[in-house]
Amino acid sequence: MDINLSTKAKITWCPGCPNNAILVAFREAVMELMNAGSLKLENIVACSGIGCHGKITDYLNVNTFTSLHGRLIPAMTGMKTANPALTVVGFSGDGDSYDEGLDHLVHAARRNSDINIFIHDNQVFALTTGQATPTSPKGFKGRSTPTGTIEEPFNPLLLMLSAGATFVARSYAPEIAKTKEIMKAAIAHKGFSFVDIIQPCITFFDTRDYYGKRIYWLDEKFPTNDVATATEKAREYGDKIPSGIFYSIEKPAFEEQLLALK
Ligand code: SF4
Question: Would you say the CB of residue 145 lies under 6 angstroms from ligand 1?
Answer without folding.
Answer: no
